[in-house]
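pasting input
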Amino acid sequence: MTEKKNSNGEVKLLGAWPSPFVIRARIALNIKSVEYDFIEETFGKRSQLLLKSNPVNKQIPVLIHGHKCIAESMIIVQYIHEAWSSSGPPILPSLPYDRAIARFWLTYIDDKWFPPLKSIVLGLDTEPIEEKLEKVREGLVLLEDAFNKISKGKDFFGGNQIGYLDIGFGSFLAWLKTVEVTEGVSLVHETTTPGLAKWLQKFCAHDAVKDVLPPIDKLIAFSKMLRANVDLVINPK
Amino acid sequence: MEDLKPHGFWYSPFTMRVVWTLKLKGLSYENIEEDRFNKSPQLLEYNPVHKKTPVLVHGGKPICESMIIVQYIDELWPQNSLVPHDSYERAQARFWVAYSEQMVPALPALIQSNSAEEKEKAVQKAWENFKVLEDHCLADKRKFFGGDKINIVDIAIGSFFVFFVTIEDLKQVKILVAEKFPLLHLWFDNFKNAPVIKENFPDREKMLATMKPFLERRLASS
């Protein structure tokens, strides 16, 4: 791992280890070799610091850089790309068209693909689980096609380096694996989604990623706790 | 001459964002007006995932999602920049653009409200968002969200406010109440009178005439 830039306590990240949105910020900080204080929120209870640094949405992650507070995971990722532009590889694609494509798929992942997966994790009874799994699978087919087009034969969506879309999508991989284990299903597989299967291996092994993706057994235990406290997830204090 | 073809519905706030941006940049384009109830095969080909407008086709390549299109145009044609230069200010602008998404449910709630009670409830919901903007975003009394110049936040939020004032006419209900939201009221006045926006602001009578039967059609089909 490349030597981290000493930030003298100047960079703080408010978050929680299981959150894919927090994982996004951590991967981006790692890519740029930024040292930061990771301040963990307690599940179900918002700290004063969180309420002060993100008064509008009151959600993690929040990046605190000096006196500046930045919220929303992919906005934080873009900020990190810009603020530490002279350190490490770029995170966003260089061409506006490629950025537009990456942002499009990110929006799709957050707005359409993740909600059924989240619903499975939380054990919500909005619809049968088979239907939710089918939606997740259909989305993965679209993302497989997107990966093949965007990567152009390279390892990642970002080409030779992990980038914006790798981070945005890859942050969900531990939860995806957790659902595969708890529900006894296969979602990403070398026969159905060969491109994504290969990408997944490389992504999870990447230096900037491997220490921030939570272990599956820990996530399985956490998901049991989540299901027992769904009301706190939906209406946090 | 750039080969720019935006596909959209002139009355849609999402299409307005794209048109305003093209006009603010002084770009010429060929408008492709889609029919919401009969979308063109080209549109379905350009946006197979969502099958929605707006789509900007540039040199044959499609870009989807209104604010992604706006950022694309701004990045390719940096004159009259629509994002702050400073990274932190830029992050703040992006935050408020993202926040504007939270205002979307208020629009159909207002459109579908009929009884006085339903209207009251829908207006209250919109007011929750208005209060956040008034207290957190405009508290320093700037002319536009972008300060002296229009930026992506003005474009994102301004497009929804065109709809709010149309609904005021359609439903005979006051939403943007000056006494409750003085800064927001002043901001919208500044915005709709700004050069380029004023010349490309949808005609009030035309909006009413278009939205009325659309409303009736939606109510009939629901």
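fyi Chain B has nine helices and four strands.
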